[in-house]
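Fold this complex.
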Amino acid sequence: MVEIRRMGPQIGVEVRGVDVTTLDDAGFAPIYQAWLDHNILCVRGQDLTIPDFIRYSERFGPVTPHPSKSTRHPDHPKITMLGINKRDADGKLIDAIYRRGAEGWHTDGAYNQAPFKATQLYALAVPSRGGNTLFANAYAAYDGLPQRLKERLDGVVGAFSYGGRRGKSALLNQEDQDWKPVLHRIVRTHPETGRKSLYFDPGKIVDFIGIERAEGDELIAELTQCMVQPEAEYHHQWEKGDIVIWDNRCSYHRAAGDYPPEEDRIHWRVSINDFGVEALQAAE
Ligand SMILES: O=C(O)CCC(=O)C(=O)O
Ligand SMILES: [Fe+2]
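Structure:
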């Protein structure tokens, strides 16, 4: 029996009682719709091989390799490994791996001309405590903006890059550090739901086009405050065998980054694009 149950009050839905490896189109349709309606979807209790996980992920859109080459699976470049090789040769914890995604609220792929539609993780090992992924609803962030900001942001375009204002990123190879910023509207309309969201990422924004740096700094601080609205959060506590997909067009997320470092927290991760050649080219 398939069970679909809401998780957070404004975000998140859980599905139990399916095996994603045998799901037909009629079985997949309500799952996809539940994901569109609730931004974040968890399917519990799956036992997958890498090809199973890629095949299921590709029902949502084309999967492309992540720009961080050093964390790709050596035999399956479409798979990024999270939580693997987190110590250097001297046994010292590598923060860029251990705390990946924990620097702050963000949306994945804002540095691409065609940002990732979705990101999906499959949990292989879960720590005894901590290690949650936190999610927030970006429709609620837009709805909660003061009217003054809604008017100010109307038509405003931001320039985003991998390292944002910091420039460099520890997860990129040397040859990939020189990232050319791309432009996105700060208020975006979701192509499938038609709803407006606040499209923002404080770690990847470089500038707002036509706005001075100092004024841009103030706007960044103000928008950062608006990203997570009361009641619009959901914290996912992982179970082994969970698949979680989030919609980068209408949600933000961050890793809690707080699990005991001597324990394993391991996921396979894929980046999922919108259909179309442009998206594929932009992600390469
Ligand atoms: O590990 C997590 O909980 C999320 C990491 C993250 O931000 C990502 O995979 O995009
Ligand atoms: Fe992320």
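The CA atoms of residues 118 and 248 lie 5 Å apart.
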